[in-house]
């Protein structure tokens, strides 16, 4: 992504290995979650509850009545938006009665429960979204302008901006793992999944969580690359 900087830095400088490692990790995590989901999407739950029905049951059981549930297009595009209190389930989740679909629906409900209970990491992540987006988009332009003008201040600002994207990834980890723990506990207590099905749902949620771990590592590697390439420039400016 950030291979060709100009100013004497080629596409395949020594630090490009960081980009390759991050890409491989992200692709592997994505492939693993799809494989795991597809595997347990073939396992139909004993109770024959759809992802949508499971989500509605969980929300009601937790006393959450201000969150809507809707179906959206795509596969594994499930999400919870705390801004409009809307839980969106992809087609592969909403209509399916599989163990995988129920697990994913419950995970998103876990975020709604976090929101209802004012779970601090979720609040922190939401507050970081604007600055993280700006930081990831503006980091390289700011760094390149700093190099062009030979201004160390702008280079450092660019590095700090990109570090905000990494901070967002780090804060995301406890949010996602906690949502999965809440989901599995609720599924077990409510009897939506049998004791034999719960470990299968856990495997799906662990696989999904690994995509966030891979994203955090990939972003960290990119940040390290930027620091190595540009962090020491212009110290005497």
From TrEMBL:
GO molecular function: peptidase activity
UniProt-listed GO biological process terms: proteolysis
Keywords assigned: Hydrolase, Membrane, Protease, Transmembrane, Transmembrane helix
Pfam name, any one: Zn_peptidase_2
Parts of the chain that traverse the membrane: 6-33, 127-147, 153-175, 204-228
PANTHER family: MEMBRANE PROTEASE YUGP-RELATED
The protein's name in its UniProt record: Zn-dependent protease
